[in-house]
């Protein structure tokens, strides 16, 4: 996967990405590179600024593009609980905060609302789990 250097993504590719003309694998490759590279994100902003016509279509393009790589609702739930592996968590953070996928943000807000309602109910259960965890800790670090 290290052939996916940000430098391998040229301006034409970024333009195609913004215009939503890349195949799903291409979009995913660009998104991955954007996630890893602040300089590539800056280049994307430059390309975006150069394209007045893009501004008109950006919301729709971003929405369609974002949905190609949307996490599932279950994954979003794990994201809220901070229970994902860090790389996947970073990707979702990028998807939600940089791509600002409206679909997933709405989903996440919904899950947060549910979580707030459920947290009171699960407070006693999580106390039990903590007790279980601390007992497990006595048995060995692997179990934590
Ligand atoms: Zn999404």
Account of the protein in words:
It is a single chain. The protein is an all-alpha fold. It has one domain (6-143). The chain has seven helices and no strands. It has helices at residues 11-18, 24-36, 38-50, 52-68, 73-80, 86-98, 102-139. Helix 1 packs across helix 3, helix 2 packs across helix 3 and helix 5 (73-80) packs across helix 7 (102-139). The mean pLDDT is 76. Zinc ion binds at residues 66-67, 70, 95, 101, 103-104.
Helical content class: over 70%
N-to-C SSE series? Answer: HHHHHHH
Oligomer: single chain
**What structural category arises from helix and sheet content?**
mainly alpha
β-strand percent reads: under 5%
Distance between the termini: 32 Å
Number of helical regions = 7
Number of domains: 1
Which stretches of 5+ consecutive residues score pLDDT under 50? Answer: none
Q: What is the alpha-carbon Rg in Å?
A: 20 Å
Average pLDDT reading: 76
**How many strands in all?**
0
Bound molecules: zinc ion
The description of the largest β-sheet is:
none
The 3D shape can be described as elongated
Task: Describe this protein with a few key phrases.
144 residues; 7 helices; elongated; mainly alpha; binds zinc ion
Summarize the structure.
This protein has 144 residues and is mainly alpha-helical. Helices cover 76% and strands 0% of the residues.
């Amino acid at each position: 996967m290290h052939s996916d250097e940000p430098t391998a993504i040229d301006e034409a590719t970024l333009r195609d990405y913004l215009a939503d003309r890349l195949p799903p694998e291409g979009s995913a490759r660009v998104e991955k590179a954007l996630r890893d590279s602040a300089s590539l994100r800056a280049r994307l902003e430059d390309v975006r600024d150069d394209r007045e016509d893009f501004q008109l279509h950006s919301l729709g393009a971003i929405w369609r593009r974002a949905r190609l790589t949307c996490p599932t609702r279950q994954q979003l739930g794990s994201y809220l609980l901070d229970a994902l592996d860090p790389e996947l968590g970073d990707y979702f953070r990028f998807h939600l905060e940089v791509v600002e996928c409206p679909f997933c943000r709405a989903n996440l807000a919904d899950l947060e609302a549910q979580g707030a309602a459920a947290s009171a109910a699960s407070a006693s259960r999580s106390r039990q789990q903590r007790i279980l965890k601390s007992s497990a800790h006595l048995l060995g670090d692997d179990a934590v």
